[in-house]
Amino acid sequence: MLQTLSTVQAQLHELEEENAISRRRVHELELELEECKRDVARERTRLMEREESKGPDISYRVSGSSKAKGKSKAKDVSGFNLPQLDDERLRVRYKEAVDEKKG
Predict the structure, then answer these.
(1) Which domain range does residue 75 map to?
(2) Overall domain count for the chain
(3) Burial of 34 (0-12, 13-18, 19+ CB in 10 A)
(4) Model-wide pTM > 0.85
(5) Distance between CA 19 and CA 17 in Å, rounded?
(6) Which of 1, 22, 81, 83 is the most exposed place for a label (fewest CB within 10 A)?
(7) What is the pLDDT of residues 71-97, one digit of tens each?
């Protein structure tokens, strides 16, 4: 009977140690998750600010080129594909960063 009690006590001790390790790991992961959330919020804000700053700029350039006719006007508008590509690259980079943090 004493041996059985000793065995159960040893197993309980091992489980308590394992539980403590798991709790520490959960705490570490929670801290990492909070950091990732801050990173995501910061990147999202940066992207939104960038989009907002480009919005008025695009309308100004399109309306400002009203004197141009035909193809030259189209060239002015097509020049905005490059910033859109930059935005798309930023979105891809943002998603990769989020996926990397999740993984």
Answers:
(1) 2-102
(2) 1
(3) exposed
(4) no
(5) 5
(6) 1
(7) 444 444 444 444 555 777 878 888 888
